[in-house]
Amino acid sequence: MDIRFQAGGPAAWKADIALLFVCREDAPADCQPELAEAAPWFTISPGLRDFRGEKEEKLLLYGLPDLPLPRLLITGLGPREACTLDVFRLAVAGAVRRCKDLGLASILLPASALAHLPGGGLRLLEEAAFAACTGLYNGKKWQNRKDEEKPDPEWLAFAFTEAFVPDEARVMARRGEHSARAVALARDLVNTPPNLLSPAALADQGEALAKRHNMRCEIFDKAQIEAQGLGGLLAVGAGSANEPRLVVLEYCPAGCEGQKPLTLVAKGLCFDSGGLSLKPAQNMHHMKGDMGGAAAILGALEAIALEAIPRRIAAVLACAENMPDGNALRPGDVVTTLAGLSVEILNTDAEGRIVLCDALCYAQRRFAPELLVDIATLTGACAVALGSQIAGLFCTDAALTEHLRVLGAAVSDHVWPMPLWEPYKDLLKSEVADLANIGPREGGAINAAIFLKQFVENDVRWAHIDMAGTDRTEKGSALAPVGGSGYGVRLLVELARSTV
Ligand code: BES
Ligand code: ZN
Ligand code: ZN
């Protein structure tokens, strides 16, 4: 669906349907004088009598068929004080999906109708564009059975009372559209079956992204990973016929060459069977999403490049498949990481930290980051602690912590501060190596974060995001069908846009 614009005021507006969003406190006909002018018939429509403006309440009204705006869909937002951006996004996505179900080709959303909502104006324009496009996301690519689904609407136009579309409005709507495309990319990657997305195929996706946007991209294969000393990544990938890859991307728009880069690091486990410490069969298929961190970074880079955000950004993705076979990593093995620290493997299912420590070390040596952020589906313990809507944020820099928390809340990629509790370092002691790869079950997410911290130089500003559990949506909504959520994409885009 295209995002378009219409200017010239109510008399010039035209589409198959117009959308209106109202809080419980507002009377639809009063709060929208422009729409009342464009479609005067709706203000005397008897159906309005029973509309309460409750959350998710919808009212579809019809005018005469050959009018420029022959239909109106009113969606309730509930009480004004509880109308968060999340409520607004869901309402927009739900309304657009309803238009699709009706088989309509064109949708009009008066920008002035957003101005009177909480958080109003330009910011809502971005979120409306995002939600309208994201609501149409459908990851079903591998089903021959075609549901009797109507085609997507051709376009949604934001309509303005001014003679020209304001430049800032265009910018904000495009932002939302770009974010939607980026989230769709991340969702597609997470949803792709693991037999169709090997580490090499994931690396190819990185290369394709780089080609689309003129970024630098280097892909290291197994031999190069070994030669460069990334013993952790090599060991984790050893049990799979699909060999590991290290993907290094660099986005550097003109004029940013002198900057130290914002450096993003991710776990890209295309499948995590647990290895010889095999996972239980139940839900093992969800471990195709264990590259959710890598997907978030690729999605974010897509949006960052589409918007030409003026900042140097580097990304390092550790891609592998964790499988049991004759060459697989064994419990008891000792691997030497790129940093030189030896790690005793006590559980091959704690593989994320083993690939990440090499990626973190590589990223620091290669890029001397201005800011280092890693994102990974790292521990089930984090999902147990925070559930599927919030990721764990581990960071000793208070300003950076608060910054990420606020950014995440604005785009619904929520993060919550978790402790990097130094004393737990003792729990990672090994009898035979410098470090063990697991601690006790208790505090599992913290133990993993403390493990990673051993590989971060003291003076580097670093944040670790454990997004286990948020990579998938289990309960579908208008904004996201069951499956890959695209978590982290928008948070990283906002981070790239901002300074801390
Ligand atoms: N990929 C998993 C973590 C995970 C769990 C992600 C659930 C998404 C949803 C990770 O590699 C893992 O298996 N971690 C182990 C660590 C343990 C052996 C110390 C875990 O969480 O059980
Ligand atoms: Zn694992
Ligand atoms: Zn894993």
Instruction: Estimate the helix proportion, in percent.
Output: 25-40%
Name the ligand types.
ligand BES, zinc ion
Number of structural units classed as domains? 2
Give the overall silhouette. elongated
CATH homologous group name of the largest domain: Zn peptidases
In short:
The chain is built from 15 helices and 19 strands. It has 500 residues and is of the alpha/beta class. The protein has an eight-stranded mixed beta sheet, sandwiched between helices.
Detailed description of the structure:
This protein is of the alpha/beta class. It has two domains: 2-165, Leucine Aminopeptidase, subunit E, domain 1 (3-Layer(aba) Sandwich), CATH 3.40.220; 193-497, Aminopeptidase (3-Layer(aba) Sandwich). The chain has 15 helices and 19 strands. It has helices at 28-31, 33-38, 85-101, 112-115, 122-134, 167-191, 199-213, 222-227, 231-237, 292-306, 352-367, 380-386, 398-411, 444-453, 489-497, and strands at residues 2-6, 17-22, 58-62, 71-76, 106-110, 155-159, 216-220, 245-251, 262-272, 313-322, 334-336, 342-344, 371-376, 390-394, 414-418, 435-436, 462-466, 472-473, 483-484. It has an eight-stranded mixed β-sheet, sandwiched between helices. The protein has a six-stranded mixed β-sheet with strand order 1-6-5-2-4-3. The chain has a three-stranded mixed β-sheet with strand order 11-12-16. The longest helix has 25 residues, at 167-191. The mean pLDDT is 96. Bound molecules: ligand BES and zinc ion (2 copies). One zinc ion binds next to loops.
